[in-house]
Amino acid sequence: MTSTSEYVEAPDRASGQGGGRRGGVAIALGLALGPAAALGLARFAYALLLPSMRANLGWSFSAAGAMSTANAVGYLAGALLGAAAVRRAGARRSFLAGLTVTVLALAASAASGNLAVLLGLRVIAGAAGAVSFIVGAGLVAQVSARQGSGRTALLLGIYFAGGGAGIVASGLTIPPLLAHSASGTGWRAGWLLLAGMAALALAGSIPAVRAAEEPPPTRAGVDRWPARSMAVLLGAYTLFGAGYIAYITFIVAFLKSEGAGGGEVGLFWVVLGAAAVVAAFAWGPLLARLRGGRGPAAVMAVLTVGALLPLLWRSTPTAFASAVLFGGSFLTVVSAVTAVARRSLHPRHWTPAIATLTVAFALGQCAGPVLAGLLSDGPAGLRAGLTVSVAILAAGTLLALTQTERQPTPQNQPDGSAVPNRG
After folding, report:
1. What pTM was estimated for this model as a whole?
2. CA distance linking residue 240 with residue 202, whole number of Å
3. Per-residue pLDDT reduced to its tens digit, 131-161
4. H-helix or E-strand containing 246?
């Protein structure tokens, strides 16, 4: 395991923490193991286990879908608890605690076939993953504050790309495991494999967590963040949550209904995740130059095109083009939105702002699959569900364009000294 000292290139002049450019990238890479576990493994990989679980446990589609809903509800709860967890335990401890609970919830999911138990574990995994995700983003934003605004998009992009790495890891390991399972209970081994990979991610993130600087404490009441200035972005982020999760939920079923085989679908999943990883480097320079809502809008526009392609043409190249465009943008939306919040708000407000944005995102995630599912049950089938996903994403793109960006006003520290604007 890499020692903490290897993450620190030079001491920060204000805090004594690591502030070198290479050190910042290394810390972001280490913290990116959090989204890899919390998102790529604990949330998205369930789609790979769902067919095996449904066949073995005799679930209906509504029961199988309830597992995703439970995770979204847990994610919403975790988003609401994120800022409180930081105030009580600190950012670094909260990040590691969230990942630890995520690992335990994944492992416990292999032990029972009872739907109620599994639903409870999905809620727990969603809540713990959300806390880790929110806090980790705050830690990376704090690192970027010491390196100039031009580094913000890159470091946050690296962090959020961790979710794509988790998708790739699950796509490369879970399908072969299920294919070689001698019984219908291969899904149990799948949960254990996911837990094992999440445990490795937890262990690998510890040096980066130790090297990261604890964000400034938020003082309840006095330091309430100005949510009104981000109202448009909150609305656009809600629409993004609803539109992207509808695509993720139904695209595999749609491709299969259009004649795609298991090999094509599996490769599609890996390409989608790999594109999310590459996007951290492809989008960074552009997002660093775009101001206001233009950054999130640009990424959401590409996302919308990616979601639209399978509805226009049915071919293997089109499916993979959709995977590249959608995978290369859906996690970057999170990075773009967070970068706007970071540039517009005082550092004290970053963690509560990210938490509030994640609440809006989670609300969209709860609503999107329900709406798309209801439409998919109609005469037009899955095509209707994906069409509404595209429409929601297009609306979010247009709304994001109207978000303005202002420089944060200087705040006072507890000792009364002014805090300079580092953005």
Report:
1. 0.79
2. 28
3. 998 899 888 878 876 665 556 667 877 888 8
4. helix 231-257
